[in-house]
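As described in the Methods, two query proteins were run sequentially through the folding procedure within a single session, without resetting any intermediate state between them. The first query and its resulting structure tokens are shown here.
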Amino acid sequence: MIVLGIDPGTRNLGWGVVERRGQRLHHIAHGVIRASATLSLSDRLCLLMSELEEVVGTHRPQVGSVEQIFFHKDPQSAAKLGHARGVVLLCLGRARVTVAEHAPARVKRTLTGSGRAEKEQVAAMVKTILGLDEAIPLDATDALALAITELRLDPRAVLLEAARKKTLRKKMPEHLARAVAAAREKKRR
């Protein structure tokens, strides 16, 4: 199962792709889409949409994990964040990618055990979980954290993996499937 985590923003939109293979999580890619502050808001949103469509097309995620909206002290910042989230949701919806939303405190709690963890603590856990040594921009770290959270919390990930394994079993030649079943039965006795 491949999950695209997205940390929305109108100037810096972080994204990270993580795949579950069995019980292991694997880093696929990450990045930050940067839109110049000199661009108008509408031009920034168009740029975000275009770049995000390219990321979705390249990595073909099954699920998009997006940060839930939270209230800022500054209403103008909250409105701009809402615009960026709208672009993200539209892009994922057009690509038929299932959307999951997670509160920032839930992401922090899932990765560090504390809903009040600092960004640096979350970043350190992301690098540890994914086995990364390189420096990662904080916006991309937040996006990877969202993807990890979805893969750790979402029962759909387990169901999709089970369905994949079942499909693989169906492709096994019949004589081999019977031999495997007989060996399992013998082992149970």
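Immediately afterward, the second query was submitted; its sequence and tokens are:
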Amino acid sequence: MSHSSYSSIEQLRHLIKDVEYYYKEDKPTLEFYGTVKLHGTNGGIGYDGTNIWVQSRSNIITTKQDNMGFAFFVESNKTYFIEIMKHIIANNKIDIMNNAVILFGEWCGTGIQKGVAISSLPRMFVGFDVKVVPNEDKTKSYYIDTKIPELINDFDRHIFNIHLFPTFNITINFNNVKDSEEEMNKIITQVEKCCPFGKTFGINGVGEGVVFRHYYDSTSRYIFKLKGDEHKVSKEKTKIVIAPEVIASINEFCDTTVTEQRFNQAREYLYVSNPSLPTYGKTLELSHISKFIKWMQDDIWKEEMDVMTANNLDPNLVYSEMAKRVTTLVKNLCRI
């Protein structure tokens, strides 16, 4: 029984770069299958044939050290989740003696996030992916093709399968991605205006975005996310970004990356979803500034390094400006 995190979902421009690396000349045309991206907190349910455990994005959690009540929810539905895991194992012929299986989804609803349609719904778990993790070599982990039909919606338990809600299909010719730009823009604008998942439950309101997947064999995939403008952690100039943007200065770069959305993600990481951290369950303090700066730096370096290199922005100078802005954000909140 050990934690295995959900893989980061790339932005489209990162995927384009990967495809260009592997296909030097004639690039593929691929069909992508999209599901609604829900704005909550990542949750995982692990099973090894004997033990069942519960995860946040970064830790194993328990009913005593929980993440927004998710561990308690799983414990309350433990028998049901074990049956789901057994179906997944049987239907996909997984060798459970040598592998663990993790069902990933979004724990979302009232009080978990705000500013989206699903914030008005009761708390629920919405499954979207299944990961197989070998006991001996976790680097060989893989995801099962994601439609997971064996995960049956249960309205009374508030357990759902994202693949049984409205989905989207898009064809991308990687020789000329701009040909698909209009269709992608149409989809993400539609979802941001009215969340298809929320609308199914009679709730009209903002949606976060769409996650697109393409499996090029049974265990390997391309995956990317598109978010509406209100939920991007970086504020790009265009809705569909297919290449690193031209940035005139370090100040402009920090204007687009040191955002409220990214800062709120840091707060969730530090205080809500990671029981192993010394800040877990505590309130924001000035003494925590360095922890915010470290989280923001790691996330910006991971997501935006291609923009920095494309614009020849000195990381040390970026760090200095970013740290000033994060310090100001923390100080302002501490005064409230």
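The radius of gyration is 20 Å. We note this only descriptively and draw no conclusion about the first query from it.
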